[in-house]
């Protein structure tokens, strides 16, 4: 199963995602030219980058990426956004992009559902960037974020689309928008 | 074998979604206690799993009783060792318009779907907290968003959502994660009994035009039960083919 990883820059997170996808049996494609079963997009927000073209790139890409067509067709898009989509007192610009990504993921999930292309989002946070903390005894691990991406990319998640999974150790639970 | 060496209790596991969850967890290596109000059903399910070389045992439990929930956790630990994973799956669905809803149906729905989840979660939290680790996965329903004739069912499942969030907040410091899975339309005997007209209507409301399978729910539960969800708590994951994304009242 070929998968393409699209990231703003190679980071610890993108490297970990790629390693876990390979472990799970995915064949990581060098580019988006051939048929793919999954596309993983890291918008870079969780690493502190604010890329305001991320939304337009996701919209254009989702309609262009070469998923298999026909009866056995379809595929998965997994976007790594940020828990800042809930609002941030320090990173309004990042929150704007994160919020737009969440909205686009839900919309693309509906748009692409007839083609059996699933679109989901993982919303982590980086404690070095954002002033929130995990409620769990250990900080949010990059391995857990990557494993969540791999879970949503897996063909066995075929009935899950348009969903947002916060990988934040419960740090987002008090936001009314988190449910 | 992501759950090798782990132990799990799955309630309402004699059939349907619960049995699929028990099978998935056992296939991933967990020793599973199959709890059900039906002794015969639980034993049949456990026998099925053990015949396939998996580790499972049966336990009879009426989870509306706190004593029964405590006993369930105790029995599971005696047989399989310290409890790592609790899946609160047992539930009932009684549909009735509010004007005809009986006190009995309301009370029974809340007793099984909400009090039952609390009883088992409390029993599990007591042993998990001492060991500073654990996974609780609650089966709610996308119906908690509300639907015609489902006031009792949706209120009970909405209760499961807020119970899960409170438990996630309270138990996080003990290293226990609490998450919920919200299935949408799933192919169970309940669906197969519907008339072709009703079935067509249900299908038309599915963005992907597909009805989910119990295995789809079981896979999502296994994520929350396993190591991949180490940083994820208090979440509600809809396994509904995208139906939760929009509402189109009939």
Automatic annotation (TrEMBL), chain A:
Q: What Pfam families does this protein's entry cite? A: adh_short_C2
Listed A to Z, the keywords are: Oxidoreductase
User: What are the recorded GO MF terms, alphabetically?
Assistant: oxidoreductase activity
Q: Which family does it belong to?
A: Belongs to the short-chain dehydrogenases/reductases (SDR) family.
| Name the record gives this protein | Short-chain dehydrogenase
From TrEMBL, chain B:
Q: Which family does it belong to?
A: Belongs to the short-chain dehydrogenases/reductases (SDR) family.
| Name of the protein in its database record | 3-oxoacyl-ACP reductase
Q: What residues does the Ketoreductase domain cover?
A: 6-184
* Organism of derivation: Streptomyces canus
Q: Spell out the InterPro entries in the cross-references.
A: KR_dom, NAD(P)-bd_dom_sf, SDR_fam
Q: Which UniProt keywords apply?
A: Oxidoreductase
SUPFAM superfamilies reported in the protein's UniProt record: NAD(P)-binding Rossmann-fold domains
**PANTHER family, A to Z:** 3-OXOACYL-[ACYL-CARRIER-PROTEIN] REDUCTASE (PTHR42760:SF133), SHORT-CHAIN DEHYDROGENASES/REDUCTASES FAMILY MEMBER (PTHR42760)
Select a single GO molecular function from the record's annotations and give it: oxidoreductase activity, acting on the CH-OH group of donors, NAD or NADP as acceptor
